[in-house]
Specification:
The chain is mainly alpha-helical. The protein has two domains: about 170 residues, no CATH class; about 110 residues, no CATH class. About 45% of the residues lie in helices and about 5% in strands. The protein is built from 13 helices and four strands. The chain has a two-stranded antiparallel ribbon with strand order 1-2. A two-stranded antiparallel sheet has the order 3-4. α1 crosses α5. The chain is elongated and about 80 Å long.
């Protein structure tokens, strides 16, 4: 729904710290009784570990295809009981990558808390409907959930890859769960028009209605485009619950004509300041994460030509 801005300093820290910890876990693996193909899998991961941790979304797709074709036993299957796990999959998941992920979640130096704090993402990138605040450790150690864009239960070797770790609200994390869609958009690759919102009047006389007559039944909220994220995260259904926001914008459109905006400008207010005053929202794309429903407000206010 909204893009995540790349943080180079955090990226470098994550790769450096994680690479070191996973290498330590590899040293404790006894591969003497493994099949040759499974030994080759471990060697391949060790040789390409840094690249796997750094892999962006397209590169992660390439690794998934490679492992599916060359090391299929390293891929997990949904709802498979642990007693039926393949040996190499169990090693990768329980002894290396998921083990490091669990350790990382609890670590007080560089861990999950520090990760989301440095990323500074204030609302869920999947829905932009819920805050993802970080609370100081001393007062509760509360942080948002972290979704694995490619599920760690299926692709354990991607469990600590930087671009696979997406802070999210609990609703989106649970809604997505282990679902895999080829065209699902990673928040690091979201473009401005991937999730453009609009409103559709239900009556041809909609624009002739007096301002006090607008109501929830006079319009619908919809997305201009369609994509897998909208379907997976049920965004159409969820955003239909926010007609009150659009209704407020429609009323503001009636109350604040262009002449009023120009008058505010004459008092020395900048366009950004007027935008915040009238709409209680952020205008720049890089700031949309700071407030839930900011994308909805931005798209509809632009469509209404409020400013």
């Amino acid at each position: 729904m909204i893009g995540i801005l790349f943080n180079k300093e955090l990226f470098d820290m994550h790769i450096d710290k994680t690479l070191h910890k996973i290498k330590e876990l590899f040293e404790n693996i006894d591969d003497s009784n493994l099949k040759q193909i499974d030994k080759e899998c471990l060697e391949y991961i060790k040789d390409n570990l840094k690249d796997i941790l750094e892999a962006n979304n397209s590169k992660m797709k390439e690794y998934i295809k490679y492992f599916e074709n060359n090391f299929p036993n390293s891929i997990g299957k949904i709802n498979t009981k642990e007693k039926n796990w393949k040996r190499i999959y169990k090693i990768l998941r329980k002894d290396i990558f998921e083990k490091e992920y669990d350790n990382w979640r609890e670590r007080t130096t560089y861990g999950a808390y520090r990760f989301v704090q440095e990323l500074d993402l204030q609302s869920c990138p999947y829905c932009n409907r819920n805050y993802t605040f970080v609370v100081d450790e001393k007062s509760g150690k509360l942080r948002p959930e972290i979704d694995h864009f490619y599920p760690k239960s299926i692709y354990p070797f991607l469990a600590m890859s930087f671009y696979n770790l997406i802070p999210s609200c609990s609703i989106c994390n649970h809604t997505k769960s282990n679902k895999i869609k080829e065209d699902l958009i990673n928040p690091y690759e979201i473009k401005e028009n991937d999730f453009k919102l609009t409103y559709t009047p239900n009556d041809i006389n909609f624009f002739n209605i007096e301002k006090e007559k607008y109501n929830y039944d006079s319009f619908e909220i919809d997305f201009v485009s369609t994509n897998e994220n909208i379907e997976i995260f049920k965004l159409k259904e969820l955003y239909k619950q926010h007609k009150d926001i659009v209704l407020e914008l429609l009323i503001k459109k009636a109350y604040y004509p262009k002449s009023y905006i120009e008058e505010l400008k004459s008092f020395g207010f900048s366009e950004d300041e007027i935008y915040r005053y009238l709409l209680g929202n952020y205008k720049k794309d890089e700031d949309l994460h700071k407030r839930p429903l900011s994308k909805l407000i931005k798209d509809i206010s632009e469509e209404l030509d409020l400013l």
